[in-house]
Write a structure and sequence with these properties.
Elements (H helix, E strand, L loop, with lengths): L1 H5 L8 E5 H9 L17 H17 L2 E5 L6 H9 L12 H9 L9 H4 L3
Helix pairs in contact: 4-5
C-alpha cells in the first residue's frame, strides 16, 4: 500500500515485502485488468519507483531484507530500474526465472548511477 511505503519508518518489521501489482495499481489509480486504463498501470512509473526506493533504503538502514513479488520482478524491462531503486531480492514465477536472471546479469550493480540501470535496460 502506498500509505505503508510513505510511512515505512513506523513499521518495526523483520523484513519487508513489496507487492508490485497492488502498489502499481494503487499509485497509478489504474487497474491492469481494466482495458481502458491498463496501460497506465506501469511499475516503472516514477512514483512507484520512488516508493520502492524509500522502502529499500529503509530496509537497508535497518539491516532487514526487502523483497519484491509480483509481475514487475519477472519483467526483464523492469529489472534494471528495480535494482537501481535498491532492491536485491525479487520473487518471480518459475517461467520468468531464466529471463530475469539474464536481465540481472546484464546490469552492473557497481555503477548505481548507471542510466541503463535507472531506465530498466
Amino acid at each position: 500500500m502506498p500509505a505503508a511505503a510513505l510511512d515505512v519508518e513506523a513499521f518495526d518489521a523483520a523484513f519487508f515485502s513489496i507487492g508490485s501489482n497492488d502498489l502499481t495499481q494503487y499509485v497509478t489509480a489504474a487497474g491492469r485488468d481494466i482495458a481502458a486504463v491498463a496501460d497506465l498501470a506501469n511499475p516503472l512509473n516514477p512514483a512507484v519507483l520512488r516508493l520502492i526506493r524509500m522502502v529499500a533504503e529503509h530496509g537497508r538502514a535497518r539491516g532487514c531484507e526487502v523483497s519484491l513479488c509480483g509481475d514487475a520482478g519477472g519483467d526483464p524491462e523492469a529489472v534494471g530500474a528495480l535494482l537501481a531503486a535498491g532492491l536485491r531480492s525479487l520473487s518471480v514465477a518459475p517461467s520468468a526465472l531464466a529471463a530475469t536472471k539474464a536481465a540481472i546479469g546484464r546490469i552492473d550493480l557497481g555503477r548505481r548511477g548507471d542510466s541503463a540501470a535507472r531506465n530498466g535496460r
